[in-house]
């Protein structure tokens, strides 16, 4: 059951990060200066409602599986990706969002897009790794 919870949270997050990376973050450039602060506050509050619980489920279920499999190398790699994602989220993405909540800045929007690529790649790598680890066992 924990495998399914972990895999599902990863699937949801990898899908979400690709929508954010390809559509949502670049769209910020098209929001008018007048509406930007309001749009950013809306984005931040709503995306947190979706992302925070999923990331917590992914973190705790990943840690459980890491312990359960006695620090198996593949689960260690998967968990390392989770930690890298958390570091990128809280030390890069969150501060950039905070700056954008103050005022629109196209350079910061571009930085948000470019610095989000590692998180997108890490989540995609996790997904591929989990598909490999769970092949045929979840269905």
Give the N-terminus to C-terminus distance in angstroms. 11 Å
Query: How would you state the average pLDDT, rounded?
Result: 94
The secondary-structure class comes to mainly alpha
Oligomer: single chain
Q: Can you tell me the number of structural domains?
A: 1
Low-confidence stretches: none
What about the largest sheet? none
Radius of gyration: 16 Å
Shape by Cα distribution: elongated
Q: Figure out the total of helices.
A: 4
Q: Helix share of residues?
A: over 70%
Please state roughly what percent of the residues sit in beta strands, choosing from under 5%, 5-15%, 15-25%, 25-35%, 35-45% or over 45%. under 5%
Order of helices and strands: HHHH
- Work out the number of β strands: 0
Question: Features of this protein?
Answer:
4 helices; 139 residues
How is the secondary structure organized here?
Elements: H1 2-27, H2 33-68, H3 73-102, H4 106-134
Helix pairs in contact: 1-2, 1-4, 2-3, 3-4
What do you see in this structure?
With 139 residues, the protein is mainly α. It has one domain. It is built from 4 helices and no strands. The radius of gyration is 16 Å and the shape is elongated.
Brief summary:
The protein has four helices and no strands.
């Amino acid at each position: 059951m924990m495998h399914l919870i972990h895999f599902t949270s990863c699937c949801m997050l990898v899908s979400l990060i690709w929508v954010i990376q390809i559509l949502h973050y670049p769209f910020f450039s098209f929001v008018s200066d007048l509406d930007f602060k309001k749009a950013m506050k809306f984005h931040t509050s709503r995306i947190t409602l979706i992302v925070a619980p999923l990331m917590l489920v992914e973190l705790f279920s990943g840690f459980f599986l890491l312990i359960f499999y006695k620090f198996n190398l593949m689960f260690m790699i998967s968990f390392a990706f989770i930690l890298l994602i958390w570091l990128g989220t809280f030390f890069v993405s969150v501060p950039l969002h905070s700056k954008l909540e103050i005022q629109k800045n196209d350079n910061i929007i571009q930085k948000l897009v470019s610095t989000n690529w590692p998180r997108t790649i890490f989540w995609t790598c996790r997904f591929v790794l989990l598909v490999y680890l769970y092949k045929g066992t979840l269905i």
